[in-house]
Design brief:
With 405 residues, the protein is α+β, with helices and mostly antiparallel strands. It has helices at 2-7, 20-26, 86-96, 112-115, 117-126, 142-165, 184-197, 209-214, 398-404, and strands at 46-51, 63-69, 75-80, 105-108, 129-132, 228-232, 243-251, 260-264, 269-273, 276-278. Among the domains are: 46-212, 2-Layer Sandwich (Nucleotidyltransferase, domain 5); 219-303. A hairpin with an 8-residue loop joins strand 7 and strand 8 (260-264).
Length: 405
């Protein structure tokens, strides 16, 4: 109104009073500071809240009560059947955290389960201070409100993942409800444990809530929610198998880190075990993978399944074929020997048979070619160094014949 009057050139005089009609129509909320008081040490302040009712869980619980540490953001949840069990689970939480001492303060809303005489008397006797939020102001207890919201949404996503992947037929497992709606508590506790082991932005250097609360690294657990496994059981006879089918829910409280809460489809009940091997049925036959066992604190899940092409996808083209042609090696060729030179005669007639002095006639080294059987071609004569005859000497003259005679 001030800006409008300024633009119109109107000068306002006096003090502006709130409009009763506007205040009645709007119902304005008081602002809540984003940064509240945070405890300096673990277990200095605990935020408490509960949510529900939901449908009956596997153990019959209908409510989820959550405890969140203010300093480290570490959280612990429990399932309750009624709101009247709130004090019992608060005492159970303090018993589970006995080594951490007594919390200095409880931050909670104005619910009747927290303002009743039984709860206030217990806190006074234990020396625990109580802090209540303003009525209808859940933002003042946003630490635990956010933790409950993230745990429920994370558990819902885990249940939807089971249906989307389709590797587990929930209709074949008794007492899990339509689309697994009775798994809401188990999935929320599984998600809460995952947040405790994850890096937390609210902590210094993104330290996990588990490490900030307990002072040590969290155990490595990578088992997906409702993952199938084979747990060891006692057999009635030696001819029976020694394992049965089970499904992972979450880690067990007040047990070793390798102990898991599983669901047995054969009995429809919950069980605790650390002798289990997680398997993978996405590709058909079960494929065992490394799992927890004995005193190990490391749990491993199978590697992701290989992507399978759609049924209507075109088959890949075959690889190009290769044709090989055999080329025989060329035969070795031998050069034929040079033909023998015929004798050369000087004169019109051949020389008469006369004896020639040994010094004038060279010795003959000609060889007779071998005879071949009838019907076959004559064998080829191998060339030798002595096959070429020496040129003949010219015939002696008549005078030389007379002198010799």
């Amino acid at each position: 109104m001030r800006e409008t009057a300024k633009q119109q050139g109107v000068r306002l005089v006096g003090e502006m009073q709130p409009c009763v009609g506007c205040v009645e129509a709007k119902g304005r909320r008081a602002p809540v500071p984003r940064r509240g008081t945070r405890a300096a040490v673990p277990f200095g302040k605990i935020h408490i809240d509960l949510t529900g009712p939901f449908s009956d869980a596997l153990d019959g619980s209908r409510y989820l009560i959550m405890f969140v540490d203010s300093a480290s953001r570490w959280q612990r949840g429990y399932g309750m059947r009624a709101k009247s069990d709130t004090l019992k689970f608060v005492q159970r939480f303090l018993a589970d955290m006995n080594g951490m001492g007594t919390p200095g303060c409880f931050r909670m809303d104005n619910g009747g389960e927290f303002t009743g005489s039984a709860f206030t008397s217990f806190c006074d006797a234990a020396g625990i201070r109580r802090e209540y939020t303003a009525p209808d102001t859940p933002k003042q207890n946003a630490v635990v409100e956010s933790a409950i919201w993230r745990a429920m949404k994370g558990g819902h996503a885990a249940r939807r993942h089971i249906l989307a992947m389709g590797h587990v037929d929930l209709s074949s497992i008794p007492n899990v409800g339509v689309n697994g709606h009775r798994l809401w508590l188990a999935s929320a506790l599984w998600a809460s444990a995952c947040f405790n082991r994850s890096a937390t932005k609210a902590n210094l250097s993104w330290m996990s809530s588990f490490e900030a609360f307990f002072g040590r690294k969290p155990p490595l657990t990578v088992v997906p929610f409702f993952h199938e496994g084979m747990m060891r059981v006692k057999r009635a006879t030696k001819a029976d198998v020694q394992s049965t089918r089970c499904f992972y829910l979450h880690g067990a409280n007040n047990h070793s880190t390798s102990t898991a809460v599983v669901r047995r489809p054969d009995t429809g009940r919950l069980a605790l075990t650390n002798n289990v091997v997680w398997v993978n049925r996405r590709a058909g036959a079960p494929a065992p993978v490394p799992g927890i066992g004995g005193g190990s604190s490391v749990t491993a899940a199978p590697s992701p399944a290989t992507a399978v092409p759609a049924a209507d996808a075109a088959p890949p083209p075959p690889p190009p074929s290769r044709t090989y042609t055999y080329i025989p090696p060329a035969p070795a060729t031998t050069a034929p020997p040079p033909p023998a030179s015929p004798p050369i005669f000087i004169g019109s007639s051949a020389p008469s048979p006369i004896s020639v002095a040994p010094s004038l006639t060279p010795p003959s080294t000609a060889t007779t070619p071998p005879h071949s059987p009838p019907g076959l071609p004559p064998p080829q004569q191998q060339p030798t160094s002595a096959t070429t005859p020496a040129p003949p000497h010219p015939p002696p003259s008549k005078r030389a014949v007379k002198e010799l005679g």
